[in-house]
Amino acid sequence: GRTIGAVDGFRYSNTFKASAEASEIWGDENLRAFLADPRGTMSGTKMAFRGISDPEDMDAIMAYLESLGAE
């Protein structure tokens, strides 16, 4: 539920800045897509992370993030 690219003080790549300017929100579907394929989902990201391919790992990460609650 957080706005994409909106943490103050973090140096985001342009693709995240554009998402923030468009007020795009992280939801289950787009967050899962990004975590599975960061560069394919957010073209131009500087993130050096190949993604999560194991469905059980993805479910565990999503459950953890949900446990933190909204800020």
For the report, how would you describe the main beta sheet?
Answer: none
Shape: globular
Helix share, percent? 40-55%
The count of helical stretches stands at 4
Strand content: under 5%
What's the average pLDDT?
Answer: 91
User: Which parts are unreliable, with pLDDT below 50 for 5 consecutive residues or more?
Assistant: none
Run of helices and strands: HHHH
* Topology, number of strands: 0
- Give the oligomer, counting copies of the same chain as homo and different chains as hetero: single chain
Structural category is mainly alpha
The termini sit apart by 9 Å
Radius of gyration: 12 Å
Describe this structure in words.
With 71 residues, the protein is an all-alpha fold. 49% of the residues lie in helices and 0% in strands. The protein has four helices and no strands. The longest helix has 14 residues. The model has no long low-confidence stretch (mean pLDDT 91).
